[in-house]
Specification:
This protein is mostly helical. 51% of the residues lie in helices and 7% in strands. The chain has helices spanning 2-27, 29-34, 43-74, 103-114, 138-146; strands spanning 126-129, 134-136, 160-163. A hairpin with a 4-residue loop joins strand 1 (126-129) and strand 2. It is an enzyme of class 2 (transferase).
Length: 167
């Protein structure tokens, strides 16, 4: 894989170099005409030679890339149908038994959902206005309202608290 990166980088670099040479010949053509070592040659023929060389190089580069891609695909190893395949892995431990929730478990969950999240002793009885959370008992709510006035669930400022009647 490293060789392909090197060859692709080399091809791109050489292609860009050839392109820059072609552009420089076309842009700075007047300077080359005035130089003495090019007196016998015409710029137009030099430009055509550079252009042909660039396109030939581009064609060779494409052919090399296609050949390299085909070599990579042909070098992949595919398992033959004669080879034995490994059996799928089997679990090493027996499956866990599913325990259906009992009424006592459901009762504990319901009790936990109705407990004050501050003292965890009394039932929730207060709703905080602005955020709408029902999180505390009246005792903890009074303490919160006299201190920092932040909801224990979302930390939003509590404008007012009201007693909540659960029907």
């Amino acid at each position: 894989m490293q060789n392909s990166k090197v060859s692709i980088t080399t091809i791109v670099f050489c292609t860009m170099t050839g392109f820059c040479l072609m552009v420089s010949v076309s842009i700075y053509g007047d300077n080359y005409r005035e130089s003495h070592w090019l007196d016998d040659h015409h710029l137009s023929s030099s430009f055509v030679v550079v252009l042909i060389a660039f396109f030939l190089y581009a064609v060779v580069a494409v052919i090399l890339l296609v050949t390299e891609c085909q070599d990579r695909q042909s070098s992949r190893v595919y398992p033959s149908s004669n080879e034995t395949r490994q059996a799928p892995l089997q679990p090493s431990a027996p499956p866990l038994s599913v325990i259906p929730p009992t009424s006592a478990t459901n009762q504990n969950i319901a009790t936990d959902q109705n407990e004050c999240i501050v003292c965890m002793e009394r039932p929730k009885q207060t709703i905080f206005l602005d955020c709408g959370h029902i999180a505390c008992c009246d005792t903890c709510s009074n303490i919160l309202m006299s201190s920092d006035r932040k909801c224990p669930t979302c930390r939003q400022f509590i404008r007012e608290s009201r007693h909540y009647y659960n029907a």
